[in-house]
Amino acid sequence: MGKKAVLNIKETVVELNNLLRKQKTLKKEKRLKSLLLVKTGKFETRQEVADYLSIHIRTLERWLNNYKEGGIEQMLTDKPKNKTSRIITAEIHEGLAKRVNDPNNPFLGYWDAQNWVNTEFGLDVKYHRIREYLIQHFKTKLKTPRKSHYKKDNEAEKAFLKTP
Length: 164
Hints:
Mean pLDDT: 87
Largest sheet: none
Helix content: 55-70%
Structural class: mainly alpha
């Protein structure tokens, strides 16, 4: 037989229902519903609660462990997933940083960055992965106005501005 769905929940059923009505995302609604179902004792086991909410038992147990550790606040907050990339190493990251911030030799697009990584480091990175990485780490956009064109000749500009 499964583990009994017993948990010491501090909030009352009325408080949980009020919080449930205020939630804007389905994920948070399900988390609060799980607390309500455990509090009211509608189901005997955690597996039954998980099946009723259409979630995996491990997900339910993780939510309940979060509740035990930090209460309702910790249960309803999502922790950011800051994983380091296994594909793009620190060396590639530094090379990308130099190239992205270089006004004389910028990337012409994400495809250019993809080709550059392939030629410089011999690593074939998918287009969407390099695009996602550049946006996340360097806040790049496809179309950004530049202060000056990367092929612009500074001497020609001075000569042009001097002419009456």
